[in-house]
Amino acid sequence: MTDSSDTAKARSFHALLQSASTEHFITNLSTTVGLHSLGPIVLPITINSEPSRPTCYLCCPSVAYIDYAREELRHFSGFRSLSRTLDAVLKLGYPLIRAAKLDRQVQINNWLLATNPLPDVPLDALVLMTRELAESNPGHVVIWRSLNDYSDKYAIRIFRQAGYQLYPARQIYLFDCRNDEPRVHRDERRDMALLDNGGFRFVPSAEFRDDDHARAQVLYQHLYLEKYTWLNPQYTSAFIRSMRVNGLLEFQGLRAQDGQLAGVISFFDCGRTMTAPIVGYDATLPQEAGLYRMLMALGTKRARERKMLYNMSAGAASFKRNRGGVRALEYSAIYNVGSSPTQRLAAFVVRKLLERVGVPVLRSFEL
Q1: What is d(CA 48, CA 28) in angstroms, rounded to the nearest whole number?
Q2: Domain of 53?
Q3: 126 and 31 in one domain?
Q4: Which of 91, 137, 168, 322 has a CB 3.0–4.6 Å from the CB of 187, allowing a cystine?
Q5: CA gap 50, 56 in Å, rounded
Q6: CA-based radius of gyration for the chain
Q7: Residue 145 in contact with residue 116, Cβ under 8 Å?
Q8: How far apart are CA 14 and CA 16, in angstroms?
């Protein structure tokens, strides 16, 4: 992607978010969206200045690190003592994050998606951008999400040189087709065969009907909100329609014989990295229909065809490993150099807890 197309994409996204409140597009998100230059390109930023009013985890570390993590404790139902211990540790995080004022933030490169792949980040441009935003937003920390220790190793060194600290966030899986095409695993081969013969018609983004946007919102809700947690971004049909029409997300669907979408997946591209921020399927159909498997096959197929790095995000660890996903640790980079000593100390304690407790748990239980 060229610098000019990066900037055009950011300006289109900003114009969209200026047309209505963020709640119109994501019902559980309240933030202010702006633009700022990183060298020759322009990136979207979000600003949150009222830490007493938690919002969606996309802009709120207390929700990301504590509320969401406490929801994840459902995976430890068979380990009651461990679950109670972890819950007690997590509760300690509320006063720590409040003391660190991490929810009072300016977030750079925030496309309001679970994963925001990094553009090229030159050190000089990063230092300048960070200083400008810190000076124009006193009392705020500066945050970048979605750095990982597989594809962003060089960028992580740049961020550290610029004064950022790295806070572990979650474990993700990556499917890398940029240089060498991964081996086709047995499960991927079966998924592709099911996609070809599953009885659903493939629908490219250009062929989405207007009523497909509302249907896509329902399918996403079935999976990400009702099955997992309502702490996930609650995207509306207006968001889905606008992101597709403006070319910010590419959608693909599976249409059932009754004419309705039975499955939907969207793709967001940044350079040679792609993510799938919106996925959903008809939960009323039997699991044997394999809708989730077919949607994931659309993702791996697209990555192979375009020779891209597919960031498969978090969750469904064994499913993704069995299809060639490589495990990586994702971080948020936080700059709080201008904060008070008390705030920096609290942030330091949060980071150490994440490193010494959070990371071992993530790796041991493949969360």
Answers
A1: 14
A2: 3-171+329-365
A3: yes
A4: 322
A5: 13
A6: 20
A7: yes
A8: 5
Based on the fold, state whether residues 165 and 211 are members of the same structural domain: no
In this structure, are 34 and 159 located in the same domain?
yes
Per-residue pLDDT 10s for the chain (367 aa) are 446 678 899 999 999 999 999 999 999 999 999 999 999 999 999 999 976 677 999 999 999 988 888 887 776 767 778 778 888 878 888 899 999 999 999 999 999 999 999 999 999 999 999 999 999 999 999 999 999 999 999 999 999 999 999 999 999 999 999 999 899 999 999 999 999 987 899 999 999 999 999 999 999 999 999 999 999 999 999 999 999 999 999 999 999 999 999 999 999 999 999 999 999 999 999 988 999 999 999 999 999 999 999 999 998 889 999 999 999 999 999 999 989 999 999 999 999 989 998 888 877 766 5
Distances (CA, A) of 349 to 62, 99, 179, 363: 14, 11, 39, 21
Domain count, the chain: 2
SS3 at position 280 = strand
Query: CA-CA distances (angstroms) from residue 298 to 273, 286, 304?
Result: 15, 20, 10
pTM (global) more than 0.85: yes
Residues 144, 21: Cα–Cα separation, whole Å: 23
Phi, psi of 319 (to 5 degrees): -55, -45
**CA-CA distance, 329 to 327, in Å (whole number)?**
7
8 Å CB contact between 27 and 295: no
Angle subtended at Cα 62 by Cα 56 and Cα 64, rounded to the nearest 5 degrees: 55
Rounded to whole angstroms, the Cα distance separating 72 from 66 reads 10
